[in-house]
Amino acid sequence: MWAACAAAHAQSAAATPHDDTLSFSGYLQPQYERIDRSGAEPRDRVFFRRMVLIVSARPTPEWAGTILFDLAPASSGGSLVIKDAFLQYVGWKDRGLTITFGNQKLPFSRAYLVAASRRGLVERPFPGDRSVGSPGRAIAVKVDQWNTARTLFWSGALASSLQSPDPGEVRVDGIAEARPGWSEGVMAAGRVEWHPLGETPRGQGAFGSAQWRVTYAVAGYVWRNDGDITPSEAQSGGADAVRADASAAHGIELSTGLRGHRVSLDAEYERIAASARDRALTAGLYADGEARLHKAGVEAGYMVRQHTLEIVAGADLLAADAFGRAWTRASAGLSWYAAWPTVRFQMMERVSRNDHGVSGAHSHATYVQAQFAF
After folding, report:
1. pLDDT digits (tens, 9 = 90+) for 227-282
2. Any bridge partners for residue 300, and if so which?
3. CB-based burial, 130-152: b 16+ in 10 Å, e otherwise
4. Can you give the pLDDT at residue 138?
5. Phi and psi (nearest 5°) for 95?
6. In 23-62, which ranges are continuous DSSP H helix?
7. Which CATH number do you get for residue 224?
8. Are 38 and 360 in contact (CB under 8 A)?
9. Checking CA distances to 245, which of 28, 280, 296, 342 falls within 20 to 30 Å?
10. What are the backbone dihedrals phi and psi of residue 188, each rounded to the nearest 5 degrees, phi first?
11. How far apart are CA 74 and CA 193, in angstroms?
12. Residue 122 lies in a domain
């Protein structure tokens, strides 16, 4: 079974679960990266970007379950991470309705919802980056529904999420990937997608598609600190550590996707805002207690040879009130499917301007990644 498809199932909207009673799949992504920053020595490393094992079960016709393990952190001295762990009620599939309980992706950010195994470029753009406002997986109850013609889709979720106190990021993650001392809160998220020409795949790459497919989406989320966790100085790095404990955060997304005739195109805009409890906080992404971010990104691919070679490119931007200049990046690369769909090699070059909003701070990064699916 192709792991990329399995991962897309585990992370996509209202996907149809596997028919097998129990199945195993996964993929490995060894990666080399080199980053050259202005005024600093080049840094490079070889590591496992992801080592994913997916276990899918269908104990009854009405229920399906998925657990997604990522062993990559353990390979470099960290801990195994259980990313997805959920049950789906699919007994109302004839109505297009699916209810999911457990740790899962929330219905926000097209760039983040695309499974890593189905991306054209190696790394995600600013839209989809969890460190700047795209919420990560969380324990949630989520409801998805398609209309009969599969031209209209909606999704809503209620989740428990935690907020990072690092002022250099606006990050809200579930308990599986949060750290001790993060502030706990409740999140509500929703999404509506219109597919006027029929259902448009989220996975990037136009594999054999002879028809155009297009989708338009609007999404949003609201997070509120419920005060259940008050981090200690020891947890946050000491008495001198600067903390950005947020009282609230929210985000809005507008996005579109196009597939067909060897072309894959995704465009997304997000507006993210967070309010610190300390109204005088000015550090990192915060100015006078507020973090206001604008993120935009475009990713495109053209399949030069079906199931073999794709040219990919992208551009993205992050603007913040606390920045002196907008942070911009341009990316280009190739995807070579040596044995489609199980073996893929990717290369990506990325040039950044005004890194972290600092005028004149530039960098260049090279990424080379292999993917072996089973």
Report:
1. 877 554 434 445 457 899 999 999 999 999 999 999 999 999 999 999 999 999 99
2. 265, 313
3. bebbbbbbbbbebbbbbeeeebe
4. 98
5. -95, 0
6. none
7. 2.40.160.10
8. yes
9. 296
10. -120, 135
11. 37
12. yes
Q: Tell me the sheet residues that pair with 344.
A: 371
Q: Which residues pair with 188 in a beta bridge?
A: 158, 222
- Is residue 271 one of the residues assigned to a domain? yes
Q: Cα–Cα distance between 205 and 315 in angstroms, integer?
A: 17
Q: Which pLDDT tens digit goes with each residue over 277-306?
A: 999 999 999 999 999 999 999 999 999 999
Q: Do residues 247 and 276 make contact, with C-beta atoms less than 8 angstroms apart? A: yes
Residue 238, token pair as written in the block? 């000491």
- Residue 266's Cβ-count burial label (10 Å; 0-12, 13-18, 19+) is buried
Counting the structural domains of the chain, the total is 1
Question: pLDDT by residue (tens digit) across 89-145?
Answer: 999 999 999 999 999 999 999 999 999 999 999 999 999 999 999 999 999 999 999
- What's the CA gap between 264 and 330, in Å, rounded? 17
Amino acid at 323: F
In a domain, 287, yes or no: yes
Give first-to-last CA distance, the chain, whole Å: 6
Distance (Å, whole) CA 17 – CA 223? 30
Q: Which structure tokens are listed for 163?
A: 């907020």
Coil, strand or helix at 362:
coil
Query: Would you say residue 25 lies in a domain?
Result: no
Domain range for 268 is 76-347
Contact 297/319 with Cβ under 8 angstroms? Answer: no
